[in-house]
Amino acid sequence: xxxxxxxxxxxxxxxxxxxxxxxxxxxxxxxxxxxxxxxxxxxxxxxxxxxxxxxxxxx
Length: 59
Known about the structure:
Elements: H1 2-24, H2 27-58
């Protein structure tokens, strides 16, 4: 449950930064940032899950 709430908070943070970038610069920069940030978060969660399962199997 804690990981789900942390992920939701990360997405909310990405959206907030995207809104600020859209106002400060333009929407293309904001879209590029959010695309890269969501990609990084997605792959981080995948590798974190795989790494967590390997640690559990060794124990």
